[in-house]
């Protein structure tokens, strides 16, 4: 189930949004930017519904920080209908913008649109001379076809779905071997990471080792 972070200081509205979405999504609630930041660092979030006017700061600033490393969908909420504010929010990285008051049914529809678009974009990753099509299982670097094993494909997909995030070794192992780790040797992940790095060639720096933690996909 996709995780949605609702950042809204109005308790009634926050609860209403959660109620409208809870049958389709797992909703996490934050009533301040500080709590939103704490939740975001601890959880893997798929979409953020973000009020601009929060008691401890401006939601735009929180969005700007996220956009330094992440491309997850962000829907802004505001009571301000000024056209320039809407344009600024979108230019600074918002995927959508809703002014209060609004229909919870409309909000739910817009959330579904954003997550549907995100799913499509996750299937195909393009960056520089890399093109990874996970749906067709076609991976290229420039004009060179990269032959990846199923395990390497799983590892690569995990990295792409979590671009810029530090992934622990246990998280990667669980993702690749789907919890069936009883017979997975301790160094198996290291072997797969090294094989994938070798196949990516000079761009092996994309997969950076985070000492004491695991790895991260650094090429955002």
From TrEMBL:
Keyword rRNA-binding part of the UniProt annotation: no
Provenance organism: Dorea hominis
Gene3D superfamilies per UniProt: 3.40.50.2300, 6.10.250.690, Winged helix-like DNA-binding domain superfamily/Winged helix DNA-binding domain
Functional summary from the UniProt entry: May play the central regulatory role in sporulation. It may be an element of the effector pathway responsible for the activation of sporulation genes in response to nutritional stress. Spo0A may act in concert with spo0H (a sigma factor) to control the expression of some genes that are critical to the sporulation process.
Domain OmpR/PhoB-type span(s) in chain numbering: 122-219
InterPro entries registered for this protein in UniProt: CheY-like_superfamily, OmpR/PhoB-type_DNA-bd, Sig_transdc_resp-reg_C-effctor, Sig_transdc_resp-reg_receiver, WalR-like, WH-like_DNA-bd_sf
Protein name: Stage 0 sporulation protein A homolog
Chain positions with 4-aspartylphosphate modification: 51
Keyword Transcription regulation in record: yes
Organism phylogeny: Bacteria, Bacillati, Bacillota, Clostridia, Lachnospirales
Domain Response regulatory stretches: 3-115
Matching Pfam families: Response_reg, Trans_reg_C
This protein's UniProt keywords: DNA-binding, Phosphoprotein, Transcription, Transcription regulation
DNA-binding region: 122-219
Classification via SMART domains: REC, Trans_reg_C
């Amino acid at each position: 189930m996709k995780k949605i972070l609702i950042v809204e200081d109005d308790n009634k509205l926050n609860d209403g949004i959660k109620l409208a979405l809870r049958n389709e999504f797992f909703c996490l609630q934050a009533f301040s930017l500080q709590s939103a930041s704490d939740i975001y660092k601890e959880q893997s979030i798929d979409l953020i519904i973000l009020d601009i006017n929060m008691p401890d700061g401006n939601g735009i600033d929180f969005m700007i920080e996220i956009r330094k490393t992440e491309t997850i969908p962000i829907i802004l909420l505001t009571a301000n209908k000024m056209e320039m504010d809407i344009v600024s929010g979108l230019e600074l990285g918002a995927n959508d913008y809703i002014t209060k008051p609004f229909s919870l049914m409309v909000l739910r529809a817009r959330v579904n649109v954003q997550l549907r678009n995100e799913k499509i974009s996750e299937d195909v990753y393009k960056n520089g001379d890399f093109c990874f099509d996970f749906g067709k299982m076609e991976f290229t670097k420039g004009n060179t076809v990269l032959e990846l094993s199923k395990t390497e494909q799983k590892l690569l997909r995990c990295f792409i779905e979590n671009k810029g995030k530090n992934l622990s070794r246990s998280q990667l192992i669980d993702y690749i071997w789907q919890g069936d780790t009883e017979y997975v040797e301790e160094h198996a992940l290291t072997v797969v990471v090294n094989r994938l790095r070798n196949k990516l060639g000079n761009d092996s720096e994309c997969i950076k080792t985070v000492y004491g933690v695991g790895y991260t996909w650094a090429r955002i």
